[in-house]
């Protein structure tokens, strides 16, 4: 339905139409071209939505995830692939009133995935149609952060990781393109 297809127009609409209060939402990207835009992918990444990609179907007859028709989602997949999904806990979902990460730039969004060993995957998304950068403040209490963390930046265009120093609670994105994504892997420097 056209109302559902416009759900990424705003966070409130996405939370309501995507049923964030009841489930983990998977946007079925094959049914609506609106779900396959850079804007929709950036919003999915910032709000913790997961794209349901249909391989071997009308919009992607190939069964190969690297088919060019799937290129729209690859930046998000490259970052998500850096995390370990087993036992992960998500933070900063729009359905949770506690902000565990606060971008200093209002037009940015972020999600945090904490693995059982204490490593974090942070995904930052530029939610504007223009290039931008932002600092992200991590809430140490909510996220259970203690001490310093080694930071590795994940490039969404290639999946390559680069050293980004250390931090206690602040991350700085690089200059991201319109609707761009960037990942950060934070590893505790002291064993937990």
Keywords, separated by commas or semicolons:
single chain, 192 residues, alpha+beta, six-stranded antiparallel beta sheet, three-stranded antiparallel beta sheet, 5 helices, 11 strands
Tell me about this structure:
Helix content is 17%, strand content 29%. It has helices at residues 2-5, 11-17, 38-47, 74-80, 140-143, and strands at 26-28, 50-52, 89-91, 101-103, 108-114, 120-126, 135-138, 149-155, 161-167, 170-172, 181-188. The strands form 3 sheets. A 6-stranded antiparallel beta sheet has the order 3-5-6-11-8-9. Strands 4-7-10 form a 3-stranded antiparallel beta sheet, with no helix packed on it. It has a two-stranded parallel sheet with strand order 1-2. The mean pLDDT is 82. It starts with a helix and ends with a strand. It contains 5 helices and 11 strands. A hairpin with a 5-residue loop joins strand 5 (108-114) and strand 6 (120-126).
